[in-house]
Design a protein that fits this description.
With 112 residues, the protein is of the alpha+beta class. It has one domain. It has two helices and four strands. Strands 1-2 form a two-stranded antiparallel sheet. A hairpin with a 4-residue loop joins strand 3 and strand 4. The longest helix is centred in the last third of the chain and has 12 residues. It is globular.
């Protein structure tokens, strides 16, 4: 099936962390950026190189695994989130629902 590069697809997963494992593999040519400023050899790296600086990544990850210390971070996800919130502001990321593990359901966020 022919697809548009970086176009719509059935499933697009961004792998942020893989537990306490670090992964670094060369991207195949079809998965590389077309940006001429990027190097010819590009790497898929997990944990993502910029994840610990991005609140939109850290907020939900800290909700799921606040004590996780991904390889190379030197601090827990919750600590990284707190630092990013100081820079971006607490309102930069807002929850839209809450997971209730007891009954396995999502419920609308009723926060302020």
């Amino acid at each position: 099936q022919v697809r548009e590069h970086w176009g719509p697809r059935e499933l697009d997963l961004d792998l942020i962390v893989f537990g306490r494992h670090a992964i670094r593999v060369e991207r195949p040519p079809a998965a590389r950026s077309d940006d001429p400023a990027k190097p010819a050899v590009q790497w898929l790296q997990v944990p993502h190189a910029s994840a610990r600086e991005r609140l939109f990544v850290l907020a939900p990850l800290a909700d799921l695994a606040p004590g996780l210390r991904p390889p190379g971070w030197g601090e827990a996800v919750a600590t990284s989130r707190a630092r990013a919130e100081c820079i971006e502001g607490a309102d930069a990321v807002r929850p839209i629902a809450l997971w209730h593990a007891g009954d396995g359901t999502w419920r609308p966020w009723a926060g302020t």
